[in-house]
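Standup notes, protein team

Yesterday: finished cleaning the Strongyloides papillosus set.
Today: WAP domain-containing protein structure.
Blockers: none.

Input for WAP domain-containing protein:
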Amino acid sequence: MLFPLKTIIVFFVLLLLHLVYSNSKNKIIANCPSSKMCPPGWSVQRQKMSKESIAVTCEVGVKKCDKPYSCVASHCGLKFCCANDRILKNIKDVSEEVEDDEDYDDQDSEEIDNNRIKRNKLDNYEL
């Protein structure tokens, strides 16, 4: 009876230590300038819904970065989600082209609908 009780107590102590460590790790505030978060020519990912535009941290194998960002170790000792500026520019350009194409398609569909309405009016008129 004593052995299982010791095992349970040790388990809870280890669990408690793990929770304290992980909680303190999540509250680390980096006193690190943005120029040292990522290598030159790279940009750090910022939290989308944050008012202060906080840099996104990561941990390889545990907390992953959104694509196209990669987990990069900084000079500050923390790991940040960083992406190459050229890749980000290419993604932005492609998304703008897609939006332009969608606008063009919307205009075409409006013209087709207008032509169809005109044709229907003409067909009804000829009857």
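Follow-up from PR in the comments: The chain has two domains: 1-30, 31-126.
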